[in-house]
Amino acid sequence: MSATTETGAANRAPTPATNPAVVTRFAPSPTGYLHIGNARTGMFAWLYARHYGGKALLRIEDTDKARSTSEAIDVIFDGLNWLGLDWDEEPVFQSTRAGRHAEVVEELIARGGAYRCYMTQDELAAARAAAEAERRPFRLNSPWRDADPATAPEGQPFVVRVKAEREGETVIEDLVQGRVTVANAELDDMVLLRSDGTPTYMLAVVVDDHDMGVTHVIRGDDHLNNAFRQLSIIRAMGWAEPVYAHIPLIHGGDGGKLSKRHGALGVDQYRDQLGILPEALFNYLLRLGWGHGDDEIISREQAIEWFDLDGVGKSPARFDTKKLENLNGHYIRSADDSRLADLVAPHLGFEPTVERRDLLRRSMASLKPRAANILELADGAAFLFRTRPLEMDAAAAALLEGDAPALLARLHAALDAVDDWDTEALETAVREVAEAAGVKLGAVAQPLRAALVGRKTSPGIFDVLELLGRDESLGRIADQMA
Ligand code: GLU
C-alpha cells in the first residue's frame, strides 16, 4: 500500500522546470503612466514566476507623495490588468511601510552596519569642494562612521548612512548581465534614512524585497549599480541575497534611449490612441529582447511554458512600431467579431443602438483582413453609419463624374429587382449590368462604391451592399444617379 502511494507521489513530482520557491516582484513607481519598458520588465518578472510555478508579486513604490496620486496608481493597475498580468498576493504599498523601514535601520545601527551621520550641509560641501580642487572623485568619508556614538551632538539633525565595505570587491552573478564586479572602494556610505526620518529608495527596496520573500529581483538594468549598494544592506542584516536579473532597456529604432519621440507611450495609449490589442502588445514586448527560435507569434500559454531568463539578450532591444502593427493585424484577424465590435464602438463617436451594434459586428469579417489596429477598423466601419446624402471625398466625387450617374441608374434598377439580398445574387446583378453596358466589372463597381461609401476604398463591394441592406443601398445609389 505504502509503496503504491510513494509511486503515486513520485509520478506527481514537479517537473524539473518547476520551482515553487521562486518569488518575483514588479515594483513600479507611479508616475502617471506605465511606460512600456517598465511594463515589459513587469511581464518578464511575472512570466518567470509563472514558468516556474512560483509567486508573482506587485509592489507600488509610492513614497514620492507628490507624484503618487490615486490616479497615477490606477494607471498602473489598469495597464497591468489589461495586459493580463495578475498577482498572487494583494499589492504592497511601500508608503505604508515607513515604520518597518525605520525599524530595520535601528537594527542595522545596532549591528554596526549603519551609523548616524551628523555632518552638516556646509561640511559636506567643503568635503566636495576639496575633492574637486584635488581633482579626485568625491568619496564621502564621514567622521561619524567610526565615532563613539556617545560623542553624538545632542538634538542635532542627522541622517543614517550604511557602512559600506571599503576593501575588496563585490560580485553579482546576474542572470542576464553575467558576472559583474565592482570594487568596494567605488561604493559610498549612502543615506538610508533622511534627516526628516523618511527612508530612501535604497533602503525601502531592500527591506520590502526581504519581507515579501522575493528570491529573484528582475528589473531594468538602470538599477544594476543600485544592486551593489543594496547588497551592503542585505549583507549587514545577514539576509539571504536574491538572485538578480537586470533586463536591458528598450531603445528606439535609431538606437537612442526610448523616449516619447520613438513612440514610447504609456500602455493605455497603445490601447486608446493606437488601437492595439493586449495580446499583440504582450507578444510584441515578449519578443523584444527575448526569443524562442524564430517564433514570432507566441501565445500567453506558450510564453509561460518557454520563458526563461537565459533567452533574454544583453543588448538593448530596439522598438519597431511596424512590427507591433503587423502583430496587431494578426491578432485582429484572429479575434472574435463581437469582441472587436465592442472595442470599435467607442471610437465611432456615438453610442450604437442594438441593431447598429449588430451591424458593426457583422461588418468585422470583411473589415478585419486589412486593419492594423482598432482605429482603422472604426474608420473602415464608419461608412455604415453615415446619413444620406453621403458627403463624398474628392476621389469618390471624381468617380461619380461622366457616365457614372447613368450607370448608377441602371444598377439601381437591376438591384431593385434582386429578390434575395445576399452577396451571390448581388454579384450576379452587378455583373449583368456591366455586361449589358459593355464595360468591365471595375467600371461599374467603382462608381457604385463611391455612391455607397463616399470614398474610393472599402471592403468588397458585395459585402458593402449586403451590410448596408436593400433600402439604404438603393437610397444611396439613388442620391447619386442621373
Ligand atoms: N520603483 C523602481 C522603478 O520604478 C524599481 C525599483 C526596483 O525594481 O528595484 O524604477
From TrEMBL:
Which reaction(s) does the protein catalyse, per the Swiss-Prot or TrEMBL entry? tRNA(Glu) + L-glutamate + ATP = L-glutamyl-tRNA(Glu) + AMP + diphosphate
* Motif 'KMSKS' region per record, residues: 257-261
Q: What is its EC number?
A: 6.1.1.17
Compositionally biased region (Low complexity): 9-20
The record places domain Aminoacyl-tRNA synthetase class I anticodon-binding at 339-479
Q: InterPro entries, alphabetically?
A: aa-tRNA-synth_I_cd-bd (IPR045462), aa-tRNA-synth_I_codon-bd_sub2 (IPR020751), aa-tRNA-synth_I_CS (IPR001412), aa_tRNA-synth_I_cd-bd_sf (IPR008925), Glu-tRNA-ligase_bac/mito (IPR004527), Glu/Gln-tRNA-synth (IPR000924), Glu/Gln-tRNA-synth_Ib_cat-dom (IPR020058), GluQ/Sye (IPR049940)
- Provide this UniProt record's keywords sorted from A to Z: Aminoacyl-tRNA synthetase, ATP-binding, Cytoplasm, Ligase, Nucleotide-binding, Protein biosynthesis
Which residue stretches belong to region Disordered?
1-20
The places in or outside the cell where this protein is found are: Cytoplasm
What residue stretches are annotated with the Glutamyl/glutaminyl-tRNA synthetase class Ib catalytic domain? 22-325
What Pfam families does the entry give?
Anticodon_2 (PF19269), tRNA-synt_1c (PF00749)
Where along the sequence does the record place the motif called 'HIGH' region?
A: 28-38
| A GO molecular-function annotation | glutamate-tRNA ligase activity
Going by the entry's taxonomy, the superkingdom of the source organism is recorded as: Bacteria
Q: Where does ATP bind?
A: 260
Please explain the role this protein plays, according to its UniProt record. Catalyzes the attachment of glutamate to tRNA(Glu) in a two-step reaction: glutamate is first activated by ATP to form Glu-AMP and then transferred to the acceptor end of tRNA(Glu).
NCBIfam families assigned: gltX_bact (TIGR00464)
Annotated family: Belongs to the class-I aminoacyl-tRNA synthetase family. Glutamate--tRNA ligase type 1 subfamily.
Q: Which HAMAP family match?
A: Glu_tRNA_synth_type1
The entry describes its oligomerization and partners as: Monomer.
Name this polypeptide is given: Glutamate--tRNA ligase
The organism named in the record is Sphingomonas floccifaciens
- Per the record, the gene is gltX
